[in-house]
## 1
Amino acid sequence: MPGSIATKHAPQNLEELRKLLAVDSKVKVAGIDVDGVLRGKFMSKEKFLSAASSDGFGFCSVTFGWDMHDQVYSPELLISNRANGYRDLLASIDLNTYRRIPWEDNVPFFLVSFLDPDTKEPIPVCPRSTIKKVTDKAASMGWMCMAGAEYEYYNFKETPDSLAEKRFHGLQPLTPGMHGYSLLRPQLNMQYFDDIFEESLAFGIDIEGHHTETGPGVLETALAYGPALRMADNAILFKYLVKSIGMKRGVMPSFMAKPWGNLPGCSGHIHVSLRTEDGSNAFAVSDEELKTGRAGAAYEDTKFISQTAEWFLAGILDGISDVPNINSYKRLSGGEAFWAPNAVTYGYDSRGASIRIISPPGVPPAATRFEVRVPGADMNPYFALSAIFSLGLRGIEKKLSLPCPPIGHMKPEDKATGKVKMLPLSLESSTERMMRTESIAREEAVFGNDFVEHFGGTRKHEVKLWKEAVTDWEVERYFELA
């Protein structure tokens, strides 16, 4: 497929770029806002080539000045705001992101990062720049950040028009009933199911697994492991692909973390590891240790991961409550009932823990990794991966000890007594924790003050809108009897 070939041959210079675009008249470009929404446009080939040969092109800073429904934030919360007239940021084109969109007549596509127009430095809340910061740091320490992502998502036989007409009530699931790992349910919508897989490959997004998950019309797709920046790009573009294919097939997918109170939520599990310069897995134990387990391991659960991995794990556990999530909190409040972790926990091959250790003897040493099970499908993958790797590297630098025993050593009452630290279970409490003066998120090696102030301000905006909303539940409960 042309799209599949194109994604493997990013142009190395302007001459190659001109050749690649020889028969094209336009190019599609996009950047990412703080909510993980793609913001982009078509450009003429001439305009694009001009921008690619310079520092980039102007892109309105309101991209970071409004929410996902284009409602502007309060001016005092912004890095770029109405006080400066929403002046242009500099959109820097990353030629390495070249791919073609197979369902849009193979139009060329590139991602951009956002820079300050005066300093040419990345703005603190640009998602791609945020993850580049931590991957560059890892590279300076001799490691490559590797990651994979899994998405669960509901699917409905609806259109944008029908959603508006129904006001999001009485939606028809793509298939009825709870049918995880079903071989029958995909056959009811085989074109849509297959299109997601095949078009993903053509779009340069390799897939490891694609199946039904429990819940009416729920699918789960696991994206292939790779370098963290590429994984974040693929994760954000996978959502774009599924929504695009859905519109073509009369299906509306939703990556909302908890669309229904009485049904499972949708996770966005992340798998991570570090690779050394020679290509080996820095989390794996040696061949000798594989036989008996690593001497000096803190617990039985960690005997088949390296000391580096144990420090990395301790770093995540130390700071996971301080780093930003998006709006997945009602999913977490379901707790163990839906395998949604709500505490700072870890354990060997445990799907009930926040961090699942995946290591021998269950897998080959080269596949040793951590599965971070806290994020929902609504995550901004750039921020989520940035948080995980920056906290992990901080743990390595500080040689942190594990703050608690594995989940298997905990008692049910430990959560109530405070022996086990709970994760914030609301956007409001999470934002307050992140914005504390002593928050780990404020450390320059993690996100830094500028990021925390801006992103925290956007989350306060979300909380304000949520508090002002009168929900269906409130009306149904109080309308007659209050």
## 2
Amino acid sequence: MSLARTLWDPLHVRVLRLLRDEGALSRAELADRLDIPRPRLLGELDRLVAGGHVAEAGPAESRGGRRSTLVELNPSMRFAGVDLGATSIDVEVTNGRLEPVAHYSEPADIRSGPKVTLQRVNELLAKAKVEGAFAHLDGIGIGVPGPVSFRDGVPVSPPIMPGWDRFPVRELLTREHGCPAVVDNDVNIMAVGERNAGVAHSVDNFLFVKIGTGIGCGVFLGGEVYRGTDGCAGDIGHIQVDSHGPVCTCGNVGCLEAVFSGAALAREATAAARSGTSPALADRLATNGVVTALDVAVAAVEGDVACVQLIRDGGRRIGTVLAGLVSFVNPSMIVIGGGLAQLGHIMLAEIRSVVYRRSLPLATGNLPLVLSELGPRAGVAGAAVLASEIAFEQA
């Protein structure tokens, strides 16, 4: 959390955040940590208790004299984090401390449109409610695989999401569940999740690169997500890397996403299987009828030369783009996540090699380039963080 934001946020937001991140605290500890007069804090706590946001949690350890009473977030507080991928839906319900209470994951096709997809999200949340995960949601966060107007809570001209342009996602979820909702790009929620509970915990300046069906970059600067003027900062998948490359879903030619992503890798792997360049992939194609990015990862580990080369070629493309970002932003960490993170250390080694070779030594001398610690949970974890933020602001 940036110092500027911490200083200027309303007191009730600062109290609720501290209880979320630290757990039960005494009134004296809260006053000390927030550096505010105790009478002012007590008045705010009374209001939060009356509103059902905070509850007493028994006596604190003695600090000499009369024992203070611990306070905590209301144990019934619940947030929902939703991560919509191009081919999947992930839903997680957490308590006020952002600890998972229920989790659901299933295949889906984002191209089926917003009504079908969001209806399924609502059904999964209804299932969680029936199974006792919550009585009422205090906030919902959702990430979608395309550009988002964060201010308006709607996707904007998303290339792989037909029918979603300007669809009122936030409004629909708020109306359906009777709580505030927030909508963001899927890679931004992954970055938020990784900073809150992953390898980038408390790192103020870092890049989170999602490599999956699409490619995007969550940009954390000064402890905050940098979304840009219109919410499309970090859309690195549409940086051109090959002027003679394939046509991208955005309509341009040779975008990074068009030459190395889940779909692009599957395309190249299929060609390698059919040509006989990769015996391992040829066997999988004959057996299963298709080859996937996971097949490439498995075959590479088994020593298939063509698969190792496919991964290295992709890693080199990613590394070239990231080297430019390192020179421009000078981050203190780069985190690699998304479905193709399963390509593992072959890809990571190639990305590192290119970034460290092409960027200035001053920018890379102390630059960790690592895989996501949260893995596939990064998205829902980050969405739940955003859900808690919007709920606290409206408390």
## 3
Amino acid sequence: MREDLLHFIWKYKKLQLKGLQTTKGDAINVVSVGTHNYNEGPDFFNAQLKIGSQLWAGNVEIHINASDWYAHNHEKDKNYENVILHIVWHDDATIFRPDNSEIPTLVLKDYIPANVLANYQQLFLSGKQKFINCEKDITSVDSFLLQNWLDRLYFERLEQKSAVITQLLKESNNNWEHVLFVLLMKSFGSTINGDSFFQLAKNIDFSIFKKVSVKPMQAESLLFGMAGLLNNNDILDAYYNQLKAEYVFLQNKFGFTINDEVSVAFFKLRPTNFPTIRLSQLSALYAEHQALFSKLIKAKTAEEIYGLCTVVASAYWDNHYTFGKQSKQSKKRLTASFINLLIINTILPLRFCYSKYIGKNDDETILEIISSLPEEKNSIIDKFKTQKVAISNAKDSQSILQLYKHYCKKNKCLQCGVGSSLLSRNG
């Protein structure tokens, strides 16, 4: 038995409400179960219960064993002095308040319908090791309920991504353009160089980058130089040496230095993801759009964002992936699949935060944009598809990733819309 099941049963009234009695035989009439508390203190605040002939308002605490009250030292905690009902599975101790009055106790196992326990057994305890607890039953959940839950999960994911944005805003004195730059840098770094690019962006004085961004070569020289990519004196390459000279000029002009060394990687990367290519593409993006933040915030469709982000690395990279080594001729253009990742991981989370900041609801447009993108491809999405879960766009795949990471993997089925539905089934 798990304590969160008892929380679920009480919160959603999945018990026989008629005939409820305390262990002393006093009738319990539930006026309000209270507000579920996920932090320290009693499990439910501001419940209203009629116990016997007395109407009580206060808190409710839930334990597997009544003796857990003392095991958790609640008798020494003032937060628990206003508990009006102690709900337990096993009544193995009598609990008293500081004034020696007994706290009424409800033994929940005496009032739980058999189907709820059977569904619980099916969800958590049956069979061999499973990918997810509900893998045999998830497709039986009402499609309308499932879709609403996935929509909620998508915005929950945006809320979680807001934490990084909020911190960056604090560090930059609410400079949204700077925050966009840092987030874009992280996305351009992808998995291998994401953290390095993120730190690199924080090391760069954005006001300087903004001034030089009108000239792609100057922007490239600043990014390459700060990334430590212009330190090789053995490269005999005209463009490389131009960038080095430009970087020295910028250092002298603006007086900046490298305070934190950042190491970027080429190993295990496809050439199109090399940091040289990505930094040049980012430079091109800013050279083409001086009001990039404003344009991305105002875009109403994914197609508009594609139009803004479809840029090409500078001409040198047409036949190079690294300095001094020629390669087959090809334009290093940002692809639609890469732009999709920018939209998913940077642009829409930033729009979500900005809309809240200015007090304007942008949820409908955000949903329209994310729903117009193809679903992501990874092993988790593939496994859910194997379970016959319909995943048709990026909103679905983002929601599924949130579901798996924050509910399925943590066995939080009782806080999940799918698990709650399955536990409530009859028969």
